[in-house]
Each structure stands twice: as C-alpha cells, then as structure tokens.
Amino acid sequence: MSASVVVLDYGSGNVRSAVRALERVGARVELTAAADAVLAADGLVVPGVGNFHACMAGLRAVNGPYLIDRRLAGSRPVLGVCVGMQVLFDGSTEPSTGPSEPGLGEWPGTVTRLDAPVVPHMGWSPVRPGAGSRLFAGVEDQRFYFVHSYAVQQWSLEVTEAFAAVAPVVTWATHGSDFVAAVENGPLTATQFHPEKSGDAGAHLLENWVRSL
Amino acid sequence: MTVATRVIACLDVDAGRVVKGVNFANLRDAGDPVELARSYDAQGIDELTFLDVTASSGRRETTYDVVRRTAEQVFIPLTVGGGVRTVADVDALLRAGADKVGVNTAAIARPELIAEIADRFGAQVLVLSADVRRRRGPDGQALGGFVMTTHGGQVAVDLDAVQWCARAAELGAGEILLNSMDADGTKDGFDLELIAAVRAEVAIPVIASGGAGAVEHFAPAVRAGADAVLAASVFHFGELTVAAVKAALRADGVEVR
Lengths: 213, 257
What we know:
The complex is a heterodimer.
Chain A: E1 4-8, H1 16-24, E2 28-32, H2 35-40, E3 43-46, H3 52-61, H4 64-73, E4 78-81, H5 83-86, E5 91-92, E6 110-113, E7 121-126, E8 143-148, E9 150-152, E10 169-175, E11 177-185, E12 188-191, H6 199-211
Parallel strand pairs in A: 1-2, 1-3, 3-4, 4-12, 5-6
Antiparallel strand pairs in A: 6-9, 7-8, 10-11, 11-12
Chain B: E1 6-14, E2 17-18, H1 33-43, E3 47-52, H2 60-73, E4 78-81, H3 87-96, E5 100-103, H4 105-109, H5 112-121, E6 126-136, E7 142-150, E8 155-160, H6 161-171, E9 175-180, H7 192-199, E10 206-209, H8 218-223, E11 228-231, H9 233-236, H10 242-251
Helix pairs in contact in B: 1-2, 2-3
C-alpha cells in the first residue's frame, strides 16, 4: 500500500508541481485543508511561497497551526517547504503589509534577510547535509533549486547530552552567508529549497521522505 | 561552491503551439511545448521560459492548459510571460502551475502593477521582462545609453532602460530578464555593455538574453554580471546543446549544475 500524503491547501502559489512530484515517487496525494484528511494522512506537506506573514495568516485561516500540532503530538510526519519551513521557527523580520504574525515556534530562531550581493537567492545550490541525514541519502552531492530572500541564518537549539540521540539533523547551504537549508527532527522535516522543482535530485529526496512514512 | 549560473531555454508559444520551429530529431511533435519542455529537462536545462505570443485574448485558456500540462510533467522552474496585464492574470498563471511570471509592457504603462504583484504573491514570482534597444538618433546614429521598447521591440518608449530596471527592482521585481533587441537574432554574442550597466544598478538576479550564437558567448555575459543566460533558436535548431554550453561555462570557471 503506497503512502498517503496531503498537500495542505491554503492558497499558497503553485502547489500543482508539489502534488505531481509526490505522485511521481509513488505517494497517493490529496490537495486539501479538510481536518480529517490532514490528520489521517501518512504524511503532510506544508507548502508556502511569498510573504511570511501572509503565509501564517493563510495557515491560521485553515486552522493549520492546530493541525500541525496535532500531527506532531502523535509523531505523524510533516514536511515544510520554503516558507512552509520558515513558519516553523519563532518569527521573521520580513516586512508585513498586514498584521505581523509570529511563527509556529517548533524550533527557536528568527528568519532574517539574506546578506548577499544578489538577492533573492534564485537558482541551484549545493547543500551540506548534516551527519546521519536520511533525507539526503543518495543525493548528498546534488544541487537543489532555491528561491528566497529570507532564511534562518543561526541555529540556536541547544541539545543536551541526554537528548543527543534525537538531536535534529541540520543541513546548511550558503548564499552570502550560511543558512539552514533543511532540518530533520523526528516527525518534523523541512527544506528551504523546492524539492518539487529540483529535478531528479528533488524527486529522489521526496522519495526518501515518502518511503520513511 | 555557491549558486550555479542558470542556463535557460525560451519557447515562443502561440495558441498552445511552439512557433519559430524547433528541430530536435527525436521529437514526435516538435510543436508541442510540453514535449519540448520534457526534452530540455532531459538535456539538463536549469529553467524554462514560455513566452506567450498569442494575439487573441480568447485563446488564453489554451495557454493555461499548456502551463498546466507542463507543470505536471516537468519538475524544474517554469516562467511564463507575454500579455500579462493584471494581478488576476498572474494569479491564473500561478494556479495553472507557473512558478514565475514575466511582465513587460503593462508594467511600463502602469509601474504600480509591479508592487501589486509583489505584495500579493512575493517578489520571487515577478520577472521584469525588459526589451532594450541602444538609444539612436533619427539617422540611426548611436547616442549612448539604452531605452525600453514594447510590443516585442517594435515600439521604442522614452524611458531609460537602466533606470527602469533599477526602479522595477525597487518596486519589487524579483528578477530581470534583460533582452537586447539589438543583439537578438545576430548570433554575435550578448550585449555585454548593457548587462554591465544594469548589473551596476540592481541587486536582483539578471538574466542575459539576445545574441547567443556560440558556446564562447556565455561566459563573458556571466563576467559582465549575468546570473543566468537565456537562449532560444540556437537551442531549438540544435546549433548549440545545453551540455556544450555548460561545458564551455565550466571550462571558463563558471559554476553550473
């Protein structure tokens, strides 16, 4: 039986590619925000493009924070992509045209503007997978497609020795300065790049995630 | 190692069919944008641009259908431009499966459109498509500098191209597709002076377009300041391959995927 995946539908840009890319690696995919489907799926993908605060407002409108919390409380896998990763942190310094929204705070840290001669960071960059990464197994040396102006540039989660075995695996990339390109943390996984737009390397990475469900 | 210089192929699409013929031996239907997109993906292209040259507005649905079918089969970034006039046009293209949308004439007529699109969807979706000519006098003599054109280079407007690109970046454009109408079709190489002039004024990515005719033409465009290089007919007719262009860039010390 193939894994079931829900791509959370909250009005965020081009999600067609994410749905098709997941289907291509064997998942049964549904694009919805219906609570029962979101909670029942083997995996949940939280996409996100555009403004951090607009994405958070969109997530709240479909009760996304609650649904993500419920899934994580039950160790049910969640994958955040691009701004869908950024919202998992405490907040962002990105300006807001509406109300300023905090993030979900699953990990400590603030999303800040990249400091590089050319921003947005747009294109294919290599990554430095953290030790023991399963997400990047087989594609450690590949480039992935990024398009973003903001990122988490400081990883501040302290892991005590007692919890070392379940410490997050953090993958880094560089555009001007170093930033977090991906995190693997128990049921919660996130990528700053777009695996669904990263060709065969992205498909391989998505397959790694789908197989883990 | 850092971000790779992108090599982009551009397809002109008219009512759902590729125009300016494409000449790949192994294609079943050389006029089908979806099949061509798949072929370019297999050849290692980093990104695709569809320029919708469909004249009649009643045919827009055909374009959306092409974008939809492409996005379902090709898993690299897709930009769609041509005839985009409103926020609703952008919304429809993104929903169909475009990752980025090119805006040209409509933004010159109404610059606020750039900010409206960026506010709604984020700067990263907005590619300012700039068709640029060298400024010339009535007798065709070069006056120095660059001006904007509209309607595929047919109409020159009294707008300094470098200043316009800088203003578009301030208004929220995420990237500039810089197309030299002088170099376009010459196969003599990119307009390096134009690329350098825009690079000096903007801090968003610049795509060099117009003039590619040989593999040696691409690295100078990157050294002049381009973050990406775009070509159309030289790829379509098999005069250059994506692999050969990337090999030449790599040999010249440019990072490619």
